[in-house]
Amino acid sequence: MAEPSTPVAHNPLHTALLLALILLVVAAIAGFFPPALQRTVTQAMIMLVVVTGLYTFCGNSGVFSFGHIAFMAIGGYTSAILTILPGKKEVALDLPVWLEQIQLPVSVAGPVAVLFAGLVALLVGLVFMRLRGIALPMATFAMLVIVYVVALNWQAVTGGRQALVGLPRTTGLWTGFGFAALGLFVAALYDRTRHGLALRCSRESEVAAAATGIDLERERLIAFVVSAMIVAAGGVLFAHFLGTMTANTFYLDLTFVTLTMLVVGGMRSLTGACAGVALVSVVSEVFRSIERGFSLGGTTIAAPPGLQEIVLALILLVILLLRPHGLAGDWELTLPGRSQR
Amino acid sequence: MTGEAGVATASALEVAGVVVNFQGLRAIDDIHLTLRPGEILGLIGPNGAGKTTLINVLTGFQVPDHGSVALNGVDLLPLKPHQRSRLGLVRTFQNVLPFAGLTALENVEAGAMATGMARGAGRAWAMEVLGRLGLADKAARRVDTLPFGEERRVGIARAVAMKPKFLLMDEPAAGLNDAEAEELQRVVAGIVAEGECGVLLIEHRMPLVFRLCHRIQVLQHGATIALGTPEEIRAHNAVRAAYLGDEAV
């Protein structure tokens, strides 16, 4: 019997609940914002889904992935193909007839796209998870490049270099919030399982993990598939937020931004993931508006374009130098005085 | 069932004719070893005698060039380290190798998970093991914030939580003070008495080894030079010359 007086580790579900409540407040306030700013908040919510997915794999395993944005692309394109009007597909793409004729609501196409991305992650992961050390992050980067090049050139399915247009724009502020909260709970649930614990153990010591009966490849594969599906959900949301799909959207820029969010906030903590998304989103928005320029006493002052990216890179560098475990480190937001069963 | 002397018993950890070469250097040279349930077997020898290498062979971190390793009659050589530990062949490390960034409780829970327990039962069992090792009030502490002696006990607790059939301990008393070593002795004796577990003990503290072990096997240059009860080993001339030297035992 566990002694009830003993302070025990925090419950990740409490953390997810508190973070979701904060998001709820943010979404409620953002409802009063002008549309442009509302869109920024919505986009931040979508990024949170993606970063939560990244956290599930990278945070628990300690292995970086440079390739998860490929799962966003796979999710987004799959949902696009399943939701665009058959007439438009006939003009823009060259799909098999059955696929061309399909038109599903986003509520059906989205889950299908997420499952498909999960299947791809399973097949890719079966091979990738055998890799050790730096080989695994490099392989994920190779996957990103392959998916990008395929998306850019597979005219018949993705529209190639032309944007794929006509996606139902169903992702609004509240959809974004709902999935951000859902992503947090899925990540927290995974953290609580034996698989989450086992993967964190392997992050601390692969040798000791093996001696403790932990199958490294299997645990990494499970997290890889779960995280790919969360990220793919972010891809579906983003596709139906933008209403258009281009291969360039899901490539290096987005990889850089999402990894910056994860690292700045702290990849070992769900709270950190949220903090990173919030900080990077705010900084990006502020500097984007400075880039656009503002008028002061009749003259318009504008910063040179690219300032936003440079500032983000500087923030990343400062964090890497001064707080390598990110703003949050291992700290999690949790209910005071509560302990787990 | 046929546990007669000299006959290979089904219920034991058995090493036969193991050879390990490191780039031309023979680290282990035709070692035979039998560890029975409920027995504490001491493995002693000078540094470089091949003691840790032998544990690595047993647990699957080192592939031997020749020889066989069997657990209760099951050939272990095709199995990976994590599969062997799930069969109840559990080790501790000379340098502990805790899951440093996790709490003491999570470290021990990870051990409990290896037994296949459900999450809740595993947590209760982990708390019980921590209590037994006097670490109950350290459960929520990150292991890298604990003093060395307690970190070592967390490493042992993690192994004990796996309910080992055979426990291989690589210098568990290294770096401990006398009081902690005394405590360790009590813990190891307790594990054996309670769980019918066999313990292979590598240790440099001779008083501890001679008090605790039922049998002692002495290695030198990768080969066995003596095997017997503590009294026999104490009287063994070759051992005195090779290892014990002038050390008072």
Give short descriptive properties of this protein.
heterodimer; A: 341 residues; two-stranded antiparallel ribbon; 15 helices; globular; B: 249 residues; Rossmann fold; 6-stranded mixed β-sheet; disordered N terminus
Write a brief structural summary.
The complex is a heterodimer of chains A (341) and B (249). Chain A is built from 15 helices and 4 strands. Chain A has helices at 12-30, 35-61, 69-83, 86-92, 97-101, 106-128, 135-153, 155-158, 173-192, 194-204, 206-211, 216-242, 252-265, 270-292, 307-322, and strands spanning 164-165, 244-245, 294-296, 299-301.
Describe the secondary-structure layout.
The complex is a heterodimer of chains A (341) and B (249).
Chain A: H1 12-30, H2 35-61, H3 69-83, H4 86-92, H5 97-101, H6 106-128, H7 135-153, H8 155-158, E1 164-165, H9 173-192, H10 194-204, H11 206-211, H12 216-242, E2 244-245, H13 252-265, H14 270-292, E3 294-296, E4 299-301, H15 307-322
Antiparallel strand pairs in A: 1-2, 3-4
Helix pairs in contact in A: 1-2, 1-9, 2-9, 2-12, 2-13, 2-14, 3-6, 3-7, 3-12, 6-12, 9-12, 10-12, 13-14, 13-15, 14-15
Chain B: E1 13-22, E2 25-35, E3 40-44, H1 51-59, E4 66-71, E5 74-75, H2 81-86, E6 89-91, H3 104-113, H4 119-132, H5 148-160, E7 166-170, H6 178-195, E8 198-202, H7 206-212, E9 215-220, E10 223-228, H8 230-235, H9 237-244
Parallel strand pairs in B: 3-8, 3-9, 6-7, 7-8
Antiparallel strand pairs in B: 1-2, 1-4, 4-5, 9-10
Can you characterise this structure?
Chain A: InterPro entries: ABC_transp_permease, LivM-like. Chain A: It is a multi-pass membrane protein. Chain A: Keywords: Cell membrane, Membrane, Transmembrane, Transmembrane helix. Chain A: It comes from Dongia sedimenti. Chain A: The chain crosses the membrane at residues 12-34, 65-86, 106-127, 134-151, 171-190, 221-242, 254-280, 301-322. The complex is a heterodimer of chains A (341) and B (249). Chain A is an all-alpha fold. Chain A has one domain. Chain A has helices spanning 12-30, 35-61, 69-83, 86-92, 97-101, 106-128, 135-153, 155-158, 173-192, 194-204, 206-211, 216-242, 252-265, 270-292, 307-322, and strands at 164-165, 244-245, 294-296, 299-301. Chain A has a two-stranded antiparallel sheet. Chain A has a two-stranded antiparallel ribbon with strand order 3-4. In chain A, helix 1 (12-30) runs antiparallel to helix 2. The longest helix of chain A has 27 residues, at 35-61. Residues 1-7 of chain A have low confidence and may be disordered. In chain B, strand 1 (13-22) and strand 2 (25-35) form a beta hairpin. The longest helix of chain B is centred in the C-terminal third of the chain and has 18 residues, at 178-195. Residues 1-8 of chain B have low confidence and may be disordered. Chain B has a domain at 1-87 and 205-220: 3-Layer(aba) Sandwich (Rossmann fold). The radius of gyration of chain B is 18 Å and the shape is globular. Chain B has 249 residues and is an alpha/beta fold. Chain B has a 6-stranded mixed β-sheet with strand order 6-7-8-3-9-10, with helices on both faces. At the A-B interface, helix 10 and helix 11 of A face helix 2, helix 3 and helix 4 of B.
